[in-house]
Design brief:
Layout: E1 6-8, H1 12-50, E2 55-56, H2 64-67, E3 71-78, E4 84-91, E5 94-105, E6 111-120, H3 121-124, E7 136-144, E8 165-166, H4 171-178, E9 182-189, H5 208-233, E10 234-236
Parallel strand pairs: 2-3, 4-8, 6-9
Antiparallel strand pairs: 1-10, 3-5, 3-7, 4-5, 5-6, 7-9
């Protein structure tokens, strides 16, 4: 008696499982490739947007998504009494705060938040030491849309607190605390603008490679499912040999 050749015979249960898993894995891989294309297009659009001349914030403005990462210029008065500090911001290994102050635009009376930069913990303990720009100011910088943390945390609103310390900033929470209606974006003030703060803004990261890596993993899972199905469908039949 010798081993017979392998014969292909479809097994119902492995076939049903493979027909469910393989298309799902392939669909997930294609979705990740589509996400990579979207990120690639977004990176291109943002790069082109950053090359545009500074936009003067005045009157009717484009949607916040069209302004993000574009250079802007705004003229108005800083509302120093509505300043808040955002905690746990790092600079050269030191922990401090970002100073957020609203700017009331001169020509339209609209209000836009300005991230004026980083201060140390020591500066934050003495509000009087924080630079207060009085009179009409022209602010240059880049428009960004503040993002909440991944975890949906709530912030207690304390209207009487003189200089609030918050773990993060959202425009909705700021409006509720201050009673001000603010534009749906914020200005990261230019590093060479008004002195008194440290400004080293990180470059935006749009990582398309992550999605390509995920796509390869999903396609690999589909291939593994196919290989397992083929292996379970191969059987040996016994042969008698004189």
């Amino acid at each position: 008696m010798t081993d017979s050749p392998l014969r292909f015979r479809i097994q119902p249960v492995p076939t049903v499982i493979m027909e469910l898993l393989a298309p799902m894995f392939i669909a997930l891989g294609l979705w990740q490739l589509d996400r990579a294309d979207q990120k690639r297009a977004l990176a291109h659009n943002l790069e082109q947007r950053r090359k545009l001349p500074p936009l003067l914030l005045s009157g009717n403005l484009p949607a916040a998504e069209q302004l993000e990462y574009r250079s802007v210029t705004a003229t108005g008065r800083l509302l120093n009494d509505k300043t808040v500090l955002i905690e746990n911001r790092k600079y050269q290994g030191n922990t401090g705060f970002h100073v957020i102050t609203p700017l009331r635009l001169s020509d339209s009376n609209q209000i836009v938040l300005v991230n004026r930069g980083w201060i140390s913990r020591q500066q934050a303990t003495d509000p009087a030491s924080i630079a207060r720009a009085e009179g009409e100011q022209t602010i240059r910088g880049e428009a960004v849309i503040p993002q909440p943390p991944a975890l949906n945390l709530s912030l207690a609103i304390e209207p009487e607190e003189a200089l609030p310390h918050w773990p993060f900033l959202t425009l909705e929470h700021y409006s509720a605390w201050s009673g001000l209606s603010v534009l749906p974006f914020m200005i990261l003030q230019a590093p060479d603008d008004i002195s008194g703060f440290v400004r080293r803004w990180p470059e935006p990261r749009i990582n398309e490679g992550m999605h390509i890596g995920y796509a390869i993993q999903w396609f690999a899972f589909a291939l593994i499912a196919l290989v397992i199905w083929l292996r379970l469908s191969l059987h040996r039949t016994e042969q008698n040999r004189c």
